[in-house]
Amino acid sequence: MKKISTLIIAATMAIGTTAAIAHDGSTGNADADKRIMKMKELGGAMKAVAAVAKGEAAYTPALNEQAAKIKMIAAEMGNLFPEGSGGEKTRSKDEIWSQPEAFEKAVADFDMAATGLVAAVETGDQGKIGAALGATGKTCGGCHKPFRAPKD
Ligand code: HEC
Are the C-beta atoms of 29 and 89 separated by less than 8 Å? Predict the structure, then answer.
């Protein structure tokens, strides 16, 4: 249980810092805007799962939809970064396109974790949800660290 709560704390910290950052307006690139919107949706859905993992909210089947949303965005993640959608007004680093194999691995890791999250949430079991949330949060960070530029 101790390990799980550490994972939850790590995951919610990652969500907290990312979701707290308000993106001010359009980047001028429709692909980038769409991607940023999807990332924000991810943050929101992760927060809903975290509330249940931390015992702040009771599990209801509606949480399955939040997990499904995370999985859906994970499945389309590889298409959210078309070439030319980076640049200064975004926080997407050039490495996304110059290191495609590493980036694709980060996408695949996230997708796999999201699959586990869907299964865990369906059980309604707080401990299982917490463990899967921690594992998923790790893959958010696993991509943000190498591929997302700091907020300026
Ligand atoms: C495969 C890489 C990758 C994965 C996985 C990933 N992200 Fe991101 N995320 C990015 C990149 C790159 C950006 C910067 C996007 C930009 O500005 O073009 C970003 C931006 C964000 C933002 C900031 C949006 C804004 O307002 O500017 C949030 C919030 C976010 N991600 C949440 C998440 C969460 C939560 C997860 C996991 C559930 C996640 N991301 C998984 C790559 C990823």
Answer: yes
Q: How many C-alpha atoms does 120 have within 13 Å on its Cβ side?
A: 24
Please report, for residues 47, 49, 119, 135, the alpha-carbon distance to residue 12 in angstroms, rounded to integers and kept in the order given: 7, 10, 20, 11
pLDDT tens per residue, range 57-75:
999 999 999 999 999 999 9
The answer, yes or no, to whether any atom of ligand 1 lies below 6 A from the CB of 46, is yes
- Is residue 11 in contact with ligand 1, taking CB distance under 6 Å? no
Question: Residue 116 is which amino acid?
Answer: G
From the list 100, 98, 103, 36, the residue with the least C-alpha distance to 73 is 36
